[in-house]
Task: structure prediction
Amino acid sequence: MINDLVNIVGSENVVQDEPMKNHTTFKVGGPADYLVTPDTEDELAELIKYSKEHNIPYFVMGNGSNLIVKDNGIRGIVIKLFNNFSNCKVEGNRLYASAGALMSKVGRVALEHNLTGFEFGAGIPGTIGGAVVMNAGAYGGEIKDIIVSAKVLTEAGEILELSKEELNLSYRTSCIIPNNYIVLSACLELKPGNPEEIKSKMNELATARRDKQPLEYPSAGSTFKRPEGYFAGKLIMDTGLRGYRVGGAQVSDKHCGFVINAGNATASDILDLISDIRDRVEDKFGVRLETEVKVIGE
Ligand SMILES: Cc1cc2nc3c(=O)[nH]c(=O)nc-3n(C[C@H](O)[C@H](O)[C@H](O)COP(=O)(O)OP(=O)(O)OC[C@H]3O[C@@H](n4cnc5c(N)ncnc54)[C@H](O)[C@@H]3O)c2cc1C
Result:
């Protein structure tokens, strides 16, 4: 199998038994059988075809900033769309970004072209592909506000251009996951702006993040979705769980909506802590928290 993968993406783009803790912002996760980083859409399509023909499971990821990979890792192929899948170009007010472009890079490109509208996204530590999948948002903005369309690859190997309406974006969800689509690229519509103002907004939001979020610890951002009518962090705090710990996993003292890896946490520490939080918040407030982070592997 390794030879087949090397034939598709080149030897520099395949690793075997790769610890996923090196590819997730939580810094947890056992080995992926194979981790591949295709350079082109053709290589990606070839990988999917190969996996289907040989009945090998595959999982597509970006920067691993919304993932908990379990301690025994992932069987099959992990396809990471990252640096070498990250072209960005601007035509007029439209910014086209390949799926693996980090949100920080997209923000930089928008600023270089004096385009406003992306400031909310520049500090989200994922890729644009991951951001489209879950309609990422922050500080009053979300992908839904600026996206025109996304190009996706279907399981059958077809390439579709989905409009904003077809993407069906709403709070932390879209049509991508239920259809098993792979986001190849996104087209964003921004507006002409003043570079000083764009820069100062980005800096202001970066400072707000540093002040409010435990960025000094590994995490996957907000662990839970916002339940209607509540804030997850406040419910957790009011349940008395600030600083609560299971093994190396802890409810952040700084922001109770963040579970952090406070030192050598395993994925099972994190999952046990999440389970305790959900039960205790439900006992106290009758609200069942839903995770925003995706759990994968075995
Ligand atoms: C400190 C911190 C702060 C954060 N702040 C925010 C925030 O303010 N707002 C917010 O919305 N999120 C936030 N997040 C969460 C996270 O950064 C976002 O969810 C981000 O969009 C995930 O992108 P990713 O590339 O890391 O995706 P991954 O974590 O790699 O993957 C997440 C999901 O998307 C799927 N996926 C990824 N790329 C593709 C693709 N190209 N095609 C198909 N499926 C794909 C994966 O299969 C998986 O199901 C934060 C995380 C951290 C660690």
